[in-house]
Design a protein that fits this description.
single chain, 355 residues, alpha/beta, Aspartate Aminotransferase, domain 1, Aspartate Aminotransferase, domain 2, 2 domains, three-stranded antiparallel β-sheet, globular, binds pyridoxal-5'-phosphate
């Protein structure tokens, strides 16, 4: 027996590569926003009172939680804030998934879900997406220990909205489970399930500042749901680490919420560039899903080049995209939407490689 037999062993999540700041690349591999946060954030940072760092922050994230509640038209006790939505999701998994029955989520989705299940020893089962990469609603209507759905899904980019009752039917079929809807990308064109939190007490909507608010480096995520769900999450959080949100994050988060006009424009630019990129790739024989996110999920024409080869050759040219060596993913690339200039450079590189 060694101490190592008592270690909580887990295979960690692998994020997209972050090159060092002095290595200039066109970085299209982690779905970061290509535009900076609002100027209101810079002003708030310049005016930040360093003296206040002496004091612990509000454990309930008070002023930022209240600003979020006002912004989304929900009550303060219906909002939970965490260190990025990864922290919010991890807390939700730990809080709500405590059953012998498996938690279910799609086989192709955000690849952190199975990692949290592993680290918290939560049983889980994945359900296959259909051949067009859509989530099959019928798979989520039976008995389970909980449900997680990313909508729009990643890395497919697809939003389940052809069926307007898609999420609602899953929520009503599962009164004995919590349904987590991960809406990390919803601002780029998806349809939010937020209105459901007023009707049902078992649905939790999770959002992030990392993508549409250009705040990946700041680490702010939040969840909205029935006040009882939020209370249970806070009980768990206060049992692990009460002060997750630091004072600068709280202040800058509020500043980011005070300039919707700026973010609407930035998001609209990304959406326009996304549609441009999709068309350019389709003109070159790629198959591209109808993404409602800030990335495209594209398969190069098989007879010309494999996704893996294209990924490697782009990397040699300092253009980073994402490729997974996994069934039904290995024939595709996930390409984050950058600025117009970056995407033009990306398309030019694709032409050069495929020439
Ligand atoms: C990016 C992402 C997150 C996590 O983002 P944070 O930076 O931790 O807020 C969660 N879910 C999905 C589907 C994502 O793509």
């Amino acid at each position: 027996m060694s101490w190592e037999d008592k270690v909580r062993k887990v295979v960690p999540y692998i994020p997209g590569e972050q090159p060092s700041d002095d290595h200039k690349v066109i970085k299209l591999n982690t779905n970061e926003m290509p535009y900076p946060p609002s100027p209101k954030v810079s002003e708030a940072l310049a005016g930040f009172d360093t003296e206040s760092l002496r004091l612990y922050p509000a454990p309930d994230v008070g002023p930022l939680r209240d600003a979020l509640a006002a912004r989304y038209g929900v009550a303060c006790d219906e909002v939970f804030v965490g260190v990025g939505s990864d922290d919010v999701l991890a807390t939700a998994f730990l809080t709500f998934f405590y059953s012998d029955k498996p938690v279910i989520f799609p086989d192709i989705t955000y690849s952190f879900y199975d990692v949290w299940c592993d680290v918290y020893r939560i049983p889980y089962e994945t359900k296959k997406l259909d051949e067009d990469y859509h989530i099959v609603k019928a798979d989520y209507l039976g008995e389970n220990g909980g449900i997680v759905i990313a909508n729009p899904n990643a890395p497919t980019g697809i939003s389940e909205e052809r069926d307007v009752r898609f999420i609602e039917d899953i929520v009503t079929a599962n009164p004995e489970s919590v349904v987590i809807v991960d809406e990390a990308y919803v601002d780029f064109g998806g349809v939010s399930a937020l209105p459901l939190i007023k009707k049902y007490d078992n649905v939790l909507i999770v959002r992030t500042f990392s993508k549409s608010r250009a705040f990946a480096g700041m680490r702010i995520g939040f969840a909205m749901g029935n006040s009882r769900l939020i209370k249970y999450m806070n009980d768990v959080k206060y049992s692990v680490n009460s002060y997750t949100m630091n004072r600068p994050a709280i202040e800058l988060g509020i500043a980011a919420l005070s300039d919707e006009e700026y973010y609407e424009k930035a998001v609209a630019k990304v959406v326009k560039t996304r549609q441009w990129t999709k068309k350019e790739l389709e003109d070159r024989g790629f198959s591209v899903t109808d993404s409602k996110t800030n990335f495209v999920f594209a398969a190069p024409p098989e007879d010309k080049i494999s996704a893996k080869e294209l990924f490697l050759q782009l990397k040699q040219r300092d253009i980073y995209v994402r490729w997974w060596d996994k069934d039904r993913l290995r024939e595709r690339l996930r390409i984050s939407v950058g600025t117009d200039v970056e995407m033009q450079a990306f398309v030019a590189a694709v032409d050069e490689i495929m020439a």
